[in-house]
Amino acid sequence: MNHPKFLQLDKSQTNLDKPAMPQEHNAMKRLTTLEARFDAVLPTLATRADIQSVKSEIHKASGETHKWMLATVIGLFLGFGGLFLAMSNTLKAAPQSSAQAPVVIQLPATPQQNPNRN
């Protein structure tokens, strides 16, 4: 059977050095080679269960990442809030000491009487 598809596939792989093989034998040889490749590759492909397990692992990792991000943001807000309060307390004017200076009251001087005056 000289099928046009087989003839076209065989043209690219025929060498002039080798004697020409019958078309059917060459096609069967190529088909056997492809089947061997498929038999080697198919067991390594992922199954539906494999894909589902990977999806669940990715979903779990994503949730954990969101939790860590939220905790980090909350920690940063608290840290910067504390830093702001510490700096604002440091920059306030220092309160006066509890030992205040004594209050001095000066009374007006009493008028002195002149002895020359009568």
UniProtKB/TrEMBL annotation:
Key words, A-Z: Membrane, Transmembrane, Transmembrane helix
KW Transmembrane (keyword) present: yes
Annotated segments matching region Disordered: 1-21
Transmembrane intervals: 68-87
Protein name per UniProt: Transmembrane protein
Superkingdom, taxonomy of origin: Bacteria
